[in-house]
Amino acid sequence: MLTAQKTGSTIANAFRRNVAIIAHVDHGKTTLVDALLHQSGIFRANERVAERAMDNTDLERERGITILAKNTAVHYQDVLINIVDTPGHADFGGEVERTLAMVDGVLLLVDASEGPLPQTRFVLRKALERRLTPILVINKIDRPDARVQEVLNEVYDLFIDLDAAEEQLDFPVLYTSARAGTSSTSMDVPGEDLRPLFDAIIESVPPPKGDPEAPLQMLVANLDSSDYLGRIAIGRIFNGKIKIGDNVAVCKLDRRVHETKVTKLFAFEGLKRIDITEAAAGDIVCLAGIEDVTIGETIADIEFRVPMPVIAVDEPTVSMIFGVSTSPMSGRDGQYVTSRQIKDRLDRELLGNVSIRVEPTDTPEQMKVLGRGELQLSILIEMMRREGFELQVSRPDIVTKEVNGKIVEPVEELVIDVAEEFQGVVIAQVGTRRGTMTKMVNNGSGRVRLDFRIPARGLIGFRGQFLTETKGTGIMNHLFAGWEPWHGAIASRATGALVADREGVATAFAIWNLQERGEIFIDPAQPVYEGMIIGENARSADMDVNITKEKKQTNMRASSADEAVRLIPPRKLGLEQAIEWINDDELVEVTPHNIRIRKRVLAANQRPKRQAE
Ligand SMILES: Nc1nc2c(ncn2[C@@H]2O[C@H](COP(=O)(O)OP(=O)(O)OP(=O)(O)O)[C@@H](O)[C@H]2O)c(=O)[nH]1
Ligand SMILES: [Mg+2]
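Output (structure tokens, whole complex):
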């Protein structure tokens, strides 16, 4: 029998390179892929291609971030380079982890001004653990505040800090402006195009290993689906060949084995997928028509059914309860409202989303959904509402574990960059959330960089507060740093809620009367129900209010000045803000067209009251 060791050292295909692009959020990965696509001649001269073409889902385009890892491939000279673009936001780290199972090298992008940030560390650590060959790409060298030499030194420090092996430290360095589409191996030579980067990929990234003559082993690292093809498995062939018409064995994670036939095979080519009839070790391909396959499974030779090692990803750290909406307005907006429908949707999500878990609760009406962060979970909720779902969700909670009889909780490394004037307030804020400062650097530019360790719990709802305090100018990033014994209670929101005490329609008059008491979240004429939260009380207690009150009719004709009630524009909470805002006794009601906030117990006379402190 052939073993992986025996075949591991052979070059599968000298004309292939498989690389992933990894970096902290916004350091320019997707922009670099655009430039690589353009310069490899994938597009016709007159073809119009969207900016950040790989960010092709609605949510990605709206938010300007990458959420899902995606494949593309370009030709350079005689070589086909498979490139995987990955998300940089920490919540989508699971996407990066599984992507790395497909490639032999990585382009580590680092912003020439920001330098390495928490997610740079995370992705580099994962790449080094897998012994992938790195190429350092210092990007955005066109930035006026670029500090290239310093950033280069910081990256070396990071490699050493991560215990990189000797040969891993010997990486090529490219200086690029992804936006301008230029690269150079030296800061003294202005770049003209991306040829130096392409050359570095061909020269430094090893061609894929494996044996095309050995029995087939293809590791599924990603899933996609299409209306007419059904489920599409994307993966790397490590050994052997695959052909249309072949009978293959799908080695499942639970050790079962299914037999199936290969009916549709594709390779990547720019933004498209092209039909192919066969592929071999070293190739990254898509296989359609296998309904029952998930990430981490191996498609193997029908006789030689040996799976590849499983893809390990980090554990989730945050959970939320997704439940059937119990709002009196439930079902007005959405097509899918039942627990069955919500459960089916979550089951589907689990197939393609390796870092999400779903656990049952003591009632079928509610499911506990676990993920890497609030953003990851809120993106899932946002996708569901766009698909026509209605549901209610709880405040995010932190996943804890018991180790040697002690409760431990996830702790994050928090890196903050703010103007000096906000330093005091930020340190105080983080302090009340049980963060401790580990480092402070003031490089004399008027901004300071503060490093903290903080329980992940303390970060829930922090971003909004932080942005308000720093007038939107602060930058914060955080990364899972480990498990520590429970840090003790952290105070939640200090303010109470203004709660509608009856069903009806909000009036301008009632809003006008109440707006002195706090901040109103709704517009006049908006329907409300008993227990729905219509604003934030300036005080710490909840207050039941009649937001439907009409002005008393008087015999006297109102003067026109009186009529024009002056309303402060409401503070409308988006999904993420609402999730950050709520307390444990509150829920966010999500429908395709509305985000409402409510008390968990709607009836005022049954609700435990939050008292003034
Ligand atoms: N000045 C300058 N800006 C750049 C350069 N490359 C990218 N950008 C800008 O940086 C921003 C982020 O670029 P993206 O390509 O979306 O970054 P990303 O790394 O893919 O981001 P995520 O996928 O969300 O992690 C965009 O506004 C780009 O236009 C560059 O070389 N110079
Ligand atoms: Mg991107």
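Residues 29-30, 55, 66, 85 surround magnesium ion (ligand 2) (CB under 6 Å).
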